[in-house]
Amino acid sequence: MTSENGIAHGYLPRTVDVELDELLAVAPAIAIEGVKGVGKTETAARRARTAWFLDNDDHVAGVAADPRFRMSEGTVLIDEWQRYPAVWDSVRRSVDAGSPADRFLLTGSATPAAGVDTHSGAGRILSLRMRPLALYERGFERSTVSLAALLDGRADPITGQTTWQADKYLEAVEASGFPGVYRHAPAYRRRLLDAYLQQVIHRDLPEHGVSVRRPETLRRWLAAYAAVSSTSTSYARLLDATTTGDGVHPAKTTTIAYRDHLTQLWLLDPVPGWSPARNPISRLQQAPKHQLADPALAARLLNLSARALGLPTGAPMAGPLLESLATLTVRVAAQAAEARVGHLRTRNGDHEVDLVVEGPEGQVLGIEVKLAAAVRDDDVRHLLWLRDRLGDDVVDLVVLTTGPRAYRRSDGIAVVPLALLGA
């Protein structure tokens, strides 16, 4: 089926599909985890012969009454497993008893509520993170530069052209990476995102054991968090920005609870501070960079459309939210390459690198994100500093831009339009 704007309404292949195919060949049980709405259930259901949906009371009753559910043939999907945490231990025991590969798929949009005990699945149940759609997964442009190839030091030549300019990227920020949201018209998308945030505040958190006495305070805290996207602003300053209508700050313990539970719901997705394992750099700041699961949520919390982001009043958030989109894209691709993603900032702020991707063999890829189309020498000085400090551990350096073409500078740094970066 095709929509009136020409977009096919079928299943969008995801990078995580490739990971699942590889892992299910050897793993008896995999738990796909991530914020609600990223497509976990649809992706898992395509591989399952039997499915139990534990947001359905009848299915919960069936699983609770007959633990022999695990005796059914083929791959078994257990969706929203955290709603009946005992099922985790049932799967773990089945794996211990010798379940074959490709036996269980579990999906979850939260860790179990506080006070619920489950035995660790370490060594039995693999965890696989699923995030909203990376830019390249949305199918708008053909990727010409592979992050895996950059990380392996084999990304030459750097080529490709795109018609995308800054306004298109800001539209992609607003559109969202949630599969059920981004294809719709802007007005409908805004209402869907509002409803999503409303459900988190009024339903998901209470179901997770959190009493939200003043929903407007939580939304204000979320808006303050969105306003510091792509920065490592302290939580103390976040608290200062969260004032009630009468000018009173919420209690610190209240906002810490917000942070912790929203992280357990995967709604907050901070980027950790990074430090190299093999060649330490002294005086690095370890505070995380703040990111919401989807930059569209940040834009919605701040009431910033793509058009507003392009105006002087919204311009201060255009760069940070472009970095949020780039961060999401890099993280999805990096996970498939078995790489971890962090950011680097010295304590005195002399040097910072927006994203550092570290591969499984310790190889380092440094990435800067620029809203501008052109790259100047001053834009790459932190990347050159990183290469000077880490030497051969740095396999490549990249500036992600809103420019029209991909190329390699004379100093060896790759300049890549974000629309052309893929896994």
Between the first and last Cα atoms, what is the distance in angstroms?
Answer: 27 Å
The oligomeric state is single chain
- Find the count of extended strands (DSSP E, 2+ residues): 13
- How many helices? The count is 14
Helix content: 25-40%
Share in β-strands? 5-15%
The domain count comes to 2
Element-by-element helix/strand order: HEHEHEHEEEHHHHHHHHHEEEHEEEE
Radius of gyration: 22 Å
- The overall pLDDT, averaged over residues, is 91
**Spatial strand order of the main sheet:** 7-8-9-10-12-11
Structural class: alpha/beta
The gross shape turns out to be globular
Q: How is the biggest beta sheet arranged?
A: 6 strands, mixed
As residue ranges, the low-confidence spans are 1-8
Task: Explain how this protein is built.
There is one protein chain. The chain has 14 helices and 13 strands. Helix 6 crosses helix 11, helix 6 packs across helix 13 and helix 7 packs across helix 11. Helix 4 links the parallel strand 3 and strand 4. Helix content is 35%, strand content 14%.
